[in-house]
Amino acid sequence: MKICVAGAAGAFGMKHLDALSKIDGVDVHSIVGRDQDGVAEFAKERGIDNFHTDLGEALKDDAVDAVVLATPTQVHASQAIQCLKAGKHVMVEIPMADNIEDARELVKVQQETGLVAMAGHTRRFNPSHQWIHNKIQAGELKVQQMDVQTYFFRRSNKNALGKPRSWTDHLLWHHACHTVDLFQYQTGEKANHVQAMEGPTHPELGIAMDMSIGMKVPSGALCTLSLSFNNDGPFGTFFRYICDNGTYIARYDDLVDGNENPIDVSKVDVSMNGIELQDREFINAIREGREPNASVAQCLPAMESLNEMEQLLIQQR
User: Which CA distances in Å does 218 have to 112, 122, 197, 215?
Assistant: First the structure.
């Protein structure tokens, strides 16, 4: 299967290149980057023969079966739709859109084409969260509350590699999206009550640097999410699952109980790398002609919840 990776030289583009290299029968056929010299040099470093600065040109290549989009948030939906209309399966990095209208349009186009369209909701695939999910599905655990912290130190516009960004990140539509989807996925319910508050807007970046989100599902389970771009310390997202039968803390692919005793999740799946597992699901869904876990349709309820939160934030401004 021949894959095109757009945004390959970015932080997550490189993670996808590394992940795809571990999947049998998959070839990164082409990449798309912002400038000719940069993408040419990167393609040479990675041993990739085909490179483009325009996604449309890459999509004209009949050899390409599917596309992985690791591009700026603001173009996720339009580019994913462009890929589907060109007859290519697509996995778009989280979030699949930064507004509800584009998210709904993407789902509509996927349903019209019948192609695989998946959103990059890696938390569904991290072994730590899979372990919890399996316990819930087996009836051994029930979530009572998820207490989540998403912390970064981003007072300037830089990516995860510390390099300048060409676009501005967003706490709600990007980082909260992970937790909003995961909470609803783990509980199997859509939130029927949401709340949101945000701190002051950064004078240069034009975004809120701190945010507080709450959710409740019909069964009564709660989610409390704190997000900040002002945290000077270890960065990332840390999930505390408070359950009827134990407390668990997930840090990406690692899991401990409430007393910090490690839990072995090495046998949960074929890899300990959540992004690799996410990419494997995308490839397998294409090969098997089925809907993937984290399809754009499955992730639409999270986008609807984010839209409700955004409306609350607009009212408060």
Answer: 32, 25, 22, 10
In this structure, the number of other CB atoms found within 10 A of the CB of residue 308 comes to: 16
Q: Which residue type is seen at 263? A: I
Asked if 257 and 245 touch (Cβ cutoff 8 Å), the reply is: no
CA distance linking residue 296 with residue 118, whole number of Å: 5
- For the chain, what are the domain ranges? 2-121+275-293, 123-269+302-316
CA distance 237 to 241: 13
Please report the pLDDT score of residue 248 as a whole number: 98
Asked if residues 109 and 89 have their Cβ atoms less than 8 Å apart, the reply is no
Residues 135-176 pLDDT 10s:
999 999 999 999 999 998 876 666 555 666 565 678 999 999
What is the C-alpha separation between 241 and 224, in angstroms, rounded?
A: 11
Span 178-199, average pLDDT: 98
Give ∠ CA 158-148-181 in degrees, rounded to 5.
85
- Write out the two tokens for 229: 């771009």
- Distance CA(145)–CA(162), nearest Å, equals 34
Six-digit token pair at 152?
């970064």
pLDDT reported for residue 216:
98
What pLDDT was estimated at residue 234?
A: 83
Q: Which residues pair with 91 in a beta bridge?
A: 68, 118
Looking up tokens 């706490």 gives: 171
Q: What is the pLDDT of residue 164?
A: 62
Token output for 298 = 């499955």
Q: What are the φ/ψ torsions at residue 236 (nearest 5 degrees)?
A: 130, -170
Does domain 2-121+275-293 fall under CATH 3.40.50.620? My reply is no
CA–CA gap between residue 312 and residue 317 (Å, rounded): 9
For 312, the 3-state DSSP assignment is helix
For residue 147, the SS3 value is: strand
The domain made up of 123-269+302-316 has a fold known as Dihydrodipicolinate Reductase; domain 2 (3.30.360)
Between CA 220 and CA 182 the distance in angstroms is 16
